[in-house]
Design brief:
Mean pLDDT: 84
Distance between the termini: 33 Å
Protein name: Heterokaryon incompatibility domain-containing protein
Organism: Gibberella moniliformis (strain M3125 / FGSC 7600) (Maize ear and stalk rot fungus)
Number of domains: 1
Number of strands: 4
InterPro entries: HetReg/Transcr_Mod
Order of helices and strands: EEEEH
Shape: globular
Helix content: 10-25%
Length: 94
């Protein structure tokens, strides 16, 4: 896979439908694999938000988003790796 530009990842959002982009983490090891989709807040979707410090722009880690290789900062990679762990421990029945 080759690196992608952001235009291949992001679909236009419909403001009248109150759409947001959400990421579904499929796996974190050996590499982060996820899907980026659009959902409407009108549908009351279940999701968590994360906040992270952008970090060193000179360093990056490869992840797979919608089957496309993409590069993110190590701080975002750490945040994405933590999300499934957090959900598993907070909501073990899911």
């Amino acid at each position: 896979m080759s690196p992608s530009d952001d235009s291949r990842l992001y679909a236009p959002l419909n403001r009248s439908r109150r759409e947001i982009s959400v990421i579904e983490i499929l796996s974190t090891k050996p590499r982060i694999v996820c899907n980026l989709t659009t959902v409407s807040l009108n549908q009351d979707p279940e999701f968590s938000a994360i906040s992270y410090l952008w970090g060193d722009k000179g360093k990056s880690e490869a992840i797979t988003v919608n089957g496309i290789e993409h590069f993110i900062t190590p701080s975002l990679a750490n945040a994405l790796e933590y999300v499934p762990y957090r959900w598993k421990n907070a909501f073990p029945e899911r």
